[in-house]
């Protein structure tokens, strides 16, 4: 062989790699991060709100005073100190019966999803998921060569009747993947009443539930409803992360698994990464032990609530007639539905030219639908920038409508 062209590699890829494509969000990041662009894309927390000096001192002590453990290998399941702290964090959300022994520390919430896919999905298996759903979960399920069947939502989250129909159509589905609280991307929350119904339906059908809950603590109006895992212990895998309540740069998340499954999860994680970063785990443990982390969550909540309000009033004031959107009571995202005839994907280059970015709805469906939707993030831009972004966006929409 004299040289290897791109085509030679294409022929060699494993089957599971062939369907992999760049996520629209990733592709947008380089454009959206240019300073002149108002980015309503992405999902970055407002890290500038952290007390960075104090975090820096904490990290310094972690290296200097505890370096022989924090810079060493650790165990696959994650440190017991952190798993104990994670149980305290979950207790705040209402999960009061978790044992540190059933917690597996992961590299962000993303690895939690990947581990569950490794454990349960064979090629061709069906996963049920809200439509729209988290783009990173779609990537994981696609890499596992699974098929995603979407279940419709409304303003109260997943529609129980639609779930029943989806189960009837795919009786061998492996699990329901759901983000019941402050959903990404739709910004809606599964109501109290529906939580019980969804759990009953899954229990009756013998369907496992993967509950993804990165946003539950970022509530703007009182406490969020109790997580599904607080209501049922069996058959529910609870995944969360410190990415939105502390810092995504540390890449620390976790799974709370039914006891019987925990060992297989650890084995799958060891095969994948050996062990989560001891330094990152030490940082989160120190943060939760020595710093006012509950206060910090309140700070994030306040900032995001103000920004949500700014985004919603800008949408009310500036969007063309016929546009609708969700009104999230927590989290980071608003989901907008465009007037008849507009195509969020086709409009994107014109939006970027007008210096505003969003994520077209198509990224959040496995089946290519979502052209009349877009996800708008409100955690990163200031209220003034959010309004300016909506002004630019509505200008592009008006132009497209006039075409
Ligand atoms: N699940 C959902 C629903 C998310 O929105 C995200 C992050 N955007 C993740 C999982 C992944 O979290 P992490 O950044 O901790 O990997």
Automatic annotation (TrEMBL):
<dbReference type="GO" id="GO:0008483">
    <property type="term" value="F:transaminase activity"/>
</dbReference>
<dbReference type="InterPro" id="IPR004839">
    <property type="entry name" value="Aminotransferase_I/II_large"/>
</dbReference>
<dbReference type="InterPro" id="IPR015424">
    <property type="entry name" value="PyrdxlP-dep_Trfase"/>
</dbReference>
<keyword id="KW-0663">Pyridoxal phosphate</keyword>
<keyword id="KW-0808">Transferase</keyword>
<dbReference type="GO" id="GO:1901605">
    <property type="term" value="P:alpha-amino acid metabolic process"/>
</dbReference>
<dbReference type="GO" id="GO:0030170">
    <property type="term" value="F:pyridoxal phosphate binding"/>
</dbReference>
<dbReference type="GO" id="GO:0003677">
    <property type="term" value="F:DNA binding"/>
</dbReference>
<keyword id="KW-0238">DNA-binding</keyword>
<comment type="subunit">
    <text>Homodimer.</text>
</comment>
<comment type="similarity">
    <text>Belongs to the class-I pyridoxal-phosphate-dependent aminotransferase family.</text>
</comment>
<keyword id="KW-0032">Aminotransferase</keyword>
<dbReference type="InterPro" id="IPR015422">
    <property type="entry name" value="PyrdxlP-dep_Trfase_small"/>
</dbReference>
<dbReference type="Pfam" id="PF00155">
    <property type="entry name" value="Aminotran_1_2"/>
</dbReference>
<dbReference type="InterPro" id="IPR050859">
    <property type="entry name" value="Class-I_PLP-dep_aminotransf"/>
</dbReference>
<feature type="domain" description="Aminotransferase class I/classII large">
    <location>
        <begin position="51"/>
        <end position="393"/>
    </location>
</feature>
<protein>
    <submittedName>
        <fullName>DNA-binding transcriptional regulator, MocR family, contains an aminotransferase domain</fullName>
    </submittedName>
</protein>
<dbReference type="InterPro" id="IPR015421">
    <property type="entry name" value="PyrdxlP-dep_Trfase_major"/>
</dbReference>
């Amino acid at each position: 062989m004299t040289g290897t062209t791109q085509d030679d590699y294409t022929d060699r890829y494993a089957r599971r790699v062939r369907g992999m494509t760049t996520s629209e969000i990733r592709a947008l990041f380089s454009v959206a991060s240019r300073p002149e662009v108002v980015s309503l894309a992405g999902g970055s927390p407002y890290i500038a709100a952290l007390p960075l000096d104090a975090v820096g001192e904490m990290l310094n002590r972690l290296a200097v005073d505890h370096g022989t453990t924090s810079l060493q290998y650790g165990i696959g399941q994650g440190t017991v100190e952190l798993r104990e702290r994670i149980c305290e964090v979950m207790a705040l959300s209402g999960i009061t019966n978790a044992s540190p022994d059933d917690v597996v520390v992961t590299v962000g919430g993303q690895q939690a999803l990947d581990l569950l896919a490794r454990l349960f999905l064979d090629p061709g298996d069906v996963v049920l998921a809200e439509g729209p759903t988290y783009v990173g979960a779609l990537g994981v399920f696609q890499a596992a060569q699974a098929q995603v069947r979407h279940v419709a939502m409304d303003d109260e989250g997943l529609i129980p009747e639609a779930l029943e129909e989806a189960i009837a159509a795919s009786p061998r589905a492996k699990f329901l993947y759901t983000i019941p609280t402050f959903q990404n991307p739709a910004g809606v929350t599964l109501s109290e009443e529906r939580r019980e119904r969804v759990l009953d339906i899954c229990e009756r059908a013998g369907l496992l539930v993967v509950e993804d809950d990165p946003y539950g603590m970022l509530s703007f109006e009182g406490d969020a409803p109790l997580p599904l895992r607080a209501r049922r212990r069996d058959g529910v895998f609870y995944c969360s992360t410190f990415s939105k309540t502390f810092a995504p740069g540390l890449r620390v998340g976790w799974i709370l698994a039914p006891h019987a499954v925990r060992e297989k999860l650890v084995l799958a994680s060891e095969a994948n990464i050996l062990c989560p970063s001891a330094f990152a785990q030490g940082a989160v443990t120190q943060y939760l032990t020595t710093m006012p982390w509950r206060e910090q969550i309140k700070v994030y909540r306040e900032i995001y609530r103000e920004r949500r309000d700014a985004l919603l009033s800008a949408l009310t004031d500036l969007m063309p007639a016929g546009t609708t959107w969700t009104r999230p009571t927590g989290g980071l995202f608003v989901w907008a539905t465009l007037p008849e005839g507009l195509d969020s994907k086709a409009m994107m280059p014109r939006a970027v030219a007008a210096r505003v970015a969003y994520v077209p709805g198509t990224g959040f469906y496995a089946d290519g639908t979502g052209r009349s939707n877009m996800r708008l993030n409100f955690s990163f831009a200031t209220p003034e920038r959010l309004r300016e972004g909506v002004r630019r966006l509505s200008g592009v929409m008006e132009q497209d409508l006039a075409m």
